[in-house]
Amino acid sequence: MEDVMFKDGFELNVKRLYLPTVIEVKCPKCGISHKEDLERYAISFPWVGEKTSIGCYCNDCETEFLFDVVIRLSLGVDKSTRAVE
Hints:
mainly beta, two-stranded antiparallel sheet, two-stranded antiparallel ribbon, 0% helix
C-alpha cells in the first residue's frame, strides 16, 4: 500500500465529524487533565490542515477553555487489481 497525503486547506464537505478517539488536554488555569471524547463532540464543518477549536470546561476550577485540533488526511492505495466480471 502506498499512502497519498492530501494538501491542507480543503473542506471535508460534511456538516459534523465525529471521531472515535479520546484526547487528553490540561486546563490552562489549574493544570488538571481532562479527557475529551471526540466521538461525542462534533467538529463542525471540518477542514483538513486547518485548526479547529474545541471547547472544554474544568469542573475543578470552573474555567471554560479552548484547545485546537488539526485534521490530517491520508489515503492508502492498494496495489492489487482485479477484473470486473
